[in-house]
Design a protein that fits this description.
Strand content: under 5%
Helix content: 55-70%
Number of domains: 1
Radius of gyration: 21 Å
Number of helices: 18
Order of helices and strands: HHHHHHHHHHHHHHHHHH
Oligomer: single chain
């Protein structure tokens, strides 16, 4: 656990130590730290749960077809994501350079963190505080939900086209993300939301309505829209008829409180308004799916909005020693530890191990259930890590 605590406290210390540093020097620190996190996640040995194994199995099968110059369409694995051709194409493309699942996962992770870095650098004003929020809200999910995280970080690249009102460019980037994971469809309406600050009374009213709606069985039917994208995540986990997710309510209320308390201080220019509205949608989705085990994943597509808006408030509304800042840091740490302890009940994160060493971790419950190629246990590079001559 100490290893993960150190990861969290690095940006926290950075926040307090380099508060007056230039934006350029902070950008350098951001790039170095995000690169480190990408490698930390990318080199980990099948951490995070079931999803890495199905991604690996699908990739290995596609890589075998590439090696033998077979026919992709004849493979059930090639058609596994029939409506998400972008992700399938990405598998095929990477398979020309490697046939090893670990290198595949590393490459996808590097793509995710590159897109994430671009958005954090462009849309946040206080990089260390933004990273702290990222760690609390999303870091652990980048270990396992690769497709959905990839889709989210890709569609974020289209935010500038929402601001500039360039629909066709927005549509192209959005469609790339949508073909990685169909749940990205929830991001599409962002383009049509008016570029204005809504009244606080309207916001509170809408949020209360969404909470009441979320307490009803109705949101369960919305997940039918995502049937084609829920194979990996499994329908049972998306069932909105489960118990009440109190943490969703508390998280949404906390962020809404910070936003509305400082609402008049948030600039009304297009860029800030788009990100503000994304933050509000993030909270609204959490309230709408308070009875869903994992419905909050749909809020990921708007997470950059909450990170941007809260860091803006934290930077200009609060002094670094005020209670507001401590609350932001404290809630981020709470969320971080909550996810860690919840996942660690199944030994999904510790002890940390990379794929650079053979073997596997003791008591790795997920591996015992889902490992499909035990040759990886003896030799992580039993399948070619790199094709020095791409198999075109």
């Amino acid at each position: 656990m100490w290893l993960y605590l150190i990861l969290f406290f690095i940006p926290t210390i950075w926040y307090y130590t380099f508060q007056n540093s230039s934006r350029q020097s902070n950008a350098l620190f951001l790039s170095v730290y995000m690169c480190f996190l990408a490698l930390f996640v990318g080199f980990s040995d099948m951490f995070g749960g079931y999803d890495r194994y199905i991604y690996g199995e699908i990739f290995d099968n596609i890589a075998d077809i590439t090696t033998t110059k077979g026919v992709y369409s004849e493979s059930i694995y090639y058609n596994f994501y029939s409506s998400e051709i972008g992700y399938t194409f990405l598998n095929v493309l990477i398979s020309f350079f490697t046939e090893n699942r670990y290198i595949f996962i590393l490459i996808v992770t590097l793509i995710i963190y590159t897109c994430l870095f671009i958005s954090l650098r462009k849309y946040t004003e206080n990089y260390p505080l933004a990273v702290v929020l990222f760690m609390g809200l999303w870091f652990f999910f980048t270990f396992t939900y690769l497709r959905q995280v990839l889709a989210a970080t890709i569609v974020w690249l289209s935010i500038q086209y929402v601001i500039d009102r360039k629909f066709w460019k927005f549509l192209v980037v959005f469609l790339i993300g949508f073909t990685m994971h169909n749940s990205a469809i929830i991001f599409f309406p962002l383009y049509f939301i008016p570029l204005k600050k809504f009244s606080p009374k309207l916001i509170v009213g809408v949020m209360l309505f969404l909470l009441l709606l979320g307490l009803s069985p109705l949101p369960n039917s919305l997940f039918e829209v995502y049937e084609s994208s829920s194979i990996v995540e499994r329908h049972a986990e998306y069932n909105a008829s489960g118990g009440l997710r109190v943490t969703y309510i508390l998280e949404a209320i906390f962020f809404l409180y910070l936003i509305l308390k400082s609402y008049k201080y948030i600039p009304a220019d297009k860029s800030h308004v788009v990100l503000l509205n994304m933050a509000l949608i993030f909270c609204g989705i959490l309230l709408l799916f308070v009875r869903s085990e994992n419905g909050g994943r749909l809020s990921w597509y708007y997470m950059i909005g909450i990170i941007s808006t809260i860091t803006l408030i934290g930077s200009h509304r609060y002094n670094i020693k005020t209670m507001g800042t401590f609350l932001i840091l404290g809630i981020s740490l709470f969320l971080y530890l909550r996810i860690y302890t919840g996942w660690q009940a199944y030994n999904l994160l510790s002890p940390y191990k990379t794929f650079l060493t053979d073997g596997y971790r003791d008591n790795d419950i997920i591996r015992k259930t889902y490992e499909y190629n035990y040759n990886y246990d003896e030799d992580k590079f039993c399948r070619k890590a790199f094709r020095f001559t791409p198999n075109f």
